[in-house]
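Most newcomers find our protein records easier to grasp once they have seen one. The structure tokens are whole numbers drawn from a learned vocabulary of backbone shapes. The record below serves as our worked example for the rest of this section.
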Amino acid sequence: MRPLAWVALCWLAIGTGSALAAGRSVSYSTWVVSGNLITMRLRLPVSEARRLVGVAVPVLTTDRLKEYVLDHVTVSSAGGSCPAIDQGYDLGRVDPLAVGPDLYGFELLFRCADPAQLVLHDTVLFANVPDHLNFARIRIHDQVIEQLFSSGQQQLALPDTGAPAAAGLSAYLRVGLLHVLDSLDCWCVLLAALLLVRRWSDVGGMVLALAGGYLLSLALSATGWVLPRLNAVEACLGLLVALLGAMLALRAGRYRMVGVLGWGGLLVLLAILCMFRHAPWGAPLLLGGALLFAGVMLVADRTTAMPWWVFIGLFALLDGVLMSAVLPPAQLPPRSFEEVMLGFDGGAWLIESLLVAGMATALLLVRTQRLAMLRSLLENVSAAALSAVGTFWLASRLWG
């Protein structure tokens, strides 16, 4: 089966250009309702802006985004559509705001003939990215609430008195659940871990390791001790997938030590390259990955047990931190921030636990004597696939 694995590896190495994992697509908005005047401020990450307009020239990007935002953010009321008004000073109807180096900001003012039965409409990015989320803060009648605009909720009706209901924990649970289902990183890690374990009693340990990682990410995010860098977290996930693929390939390999030294040397070489490129922050990440991989393989060689729980816990920690990395521009109060993180981590853990149970059942069937050859084929092809795709993700996220 080894030749088949190498064939799969070469094929996947050619095709990984289209094997990009889905990242967390988000934007941020603030709505202030004051009588018949509604002020809306939108903050859009640079990566999302370029996905929309397809240009890297700041002036062209801003001009095109102004037109796009004007077409995709609207307000209506009992009196009909509320037009965006000209703000004067040659600004036009969309005022570009200075909101930081990694964000584009825009402000629109809507005036309604009749402020009753207000409905906010936000369709930014949902046609291009169905899993996009807009974290919205709404101030109305001296109250402030947090809500979500998504592909399933692109409009929000406001009451004539009081404030609308906040998003709540259930909405963030759903975000975590859908995030896992849409994340190729998650599927790769869970498949690799299930192929690495040898005892079915370890499946429960996987669920506990996932819970431990998410709890740690929640604690770190709540304390504010860690300010994660989004592309660093995504690169770490790619590294984790690549290392799991290497562990799977080397577990029963004849040249185990050569493989360990080869992978460790490759990561050290990439770390050196990082120091001379525009991503020097990646060097410690790669060196840490080399040490982690060598240490885990050394422990596995001495005890004949693969410490898979280390990687599962690390994955859950990184996956949880990934959400906290995109939340700061939303400017959520501490309680709302903790609610978002609790819901996201809880939803992700619940669906991953169900996936682990389902995938474990499927692998149990291919462990029978009759299907032993199928399992060997699955392990070899999975090792090649994970190594190739994980390495591609690591490099593209470091230098993308």
User: Anything to note?
Assistant: Strands lie at 26-34, 37-45, 73-77, 80-82, 95-97, 103-111, 119-122, 133-140, 143-149, 155-157.
